[in-house]
Amino acid sequence: MKFFIDTANLDDIREAQELGVLDGVTTNPSLMAKEGIRGKDNILKHYLKICEIVEGDVSAEVIATDFDEIVKEGEELAELHPQIVVKVPMIREGIKAIKYFSDQGIRTNCTLVFSAGQALLAAKAGATYVSPFLGRLDDISTDGLQLIAEIRQIYDNYEFETQILAASIRHTMHVVNCAKIGADVMTGPLSSIDGLLKHPLTDSGLEKFLQDAKS
Ligand code: E4P
Predict the structure, then answer these.
(1) Is the distance from the beta carbon of residue 61 to the nearest atom of ligand 1 less than 6 Å?
(2) pLDDT at residue 200, as a whole number
(3) N or C: which end of the chain has fewer CB within 10 A?
(4) Atom 11, ligand 1: which residue's CA is nearest?
(5) Which of 130, 127, 109, 113 is nearest to 57 (CA)?
(6) For a substitution probing ligand 1, which of 25, 26, 62, 168 has the most ligand atoms within 8 Å of its CB?
(7) Is the CB of 133 under 6 A from ligand 1?
């Protein structure tokens, strides 16, 4: 399972990278705005800073919603750095663009996916990654994990190469449950990765070992 961090915060990205388990980064316009990154030039520079920190894929989302504009914006993002994956929304024009990018060898992440049907379409169009939003489904009392399981079954049935990128991860148990189901990738905040480290018996066990070592 690949671990991506879902943030545009450079300190969090560095911290996850230093742990040695980071495989990539996902961003979105809201995450960029949260860091105060505004204006095309600043946004492009920020993607480059992220690419300098991590070795893996960095998803950069297009703002355009019509085919020609998505293609223009996506090509510019893809040319920026080889690690960039063009993140495209799950809309009609987005699917057309994903098919176009796939034919051109440009890697894509189909975002804002909330149903198995949408995931099937993204795979048919040749998306590199599909991003079902687990946490946002849970927020509306719908079983996000069930969606990941359905997509896993569909992709396995037909051997689609599109990778399931479990997105909108909110906590550590989401990460563990996605791993059980067989999501290829998870993207979540630093806290969801840090949480994997923690167990009270580890802390109390270590304390005892250290005390005994001194005695
Ligand atoms: C996916 O790539 C999105 O950036 C993200 O996971 C959305 O998460 P949220 O629902 O916590 O905003």
Answers:
(1) no
(2) 97
(3) C
(4) 168
(5) 109
(6) 168
(7) yes
* Interval between CA 209 and ligand 1 midpoint (Å): 40
Q: What is the pLDDT of residue 74?
A: 98
Which amino acid is it at 35? E
Determine if ligand 1 sits within 6 Å of the CB of residue 29. Answer: no
Q: What's the pLDDT band for 198 if we cut at 50, 70, 90?
A: very high
Query: Which residues are catalytic, by number?
Result: 87
| b (16+ CB within 10 A) / e for 196-215 | eeeeeeeeeeeeeeeeeeee
d(CA 209, CA 213): 6
Atom 7, ligand 1: residue with shortest CA distance: 168
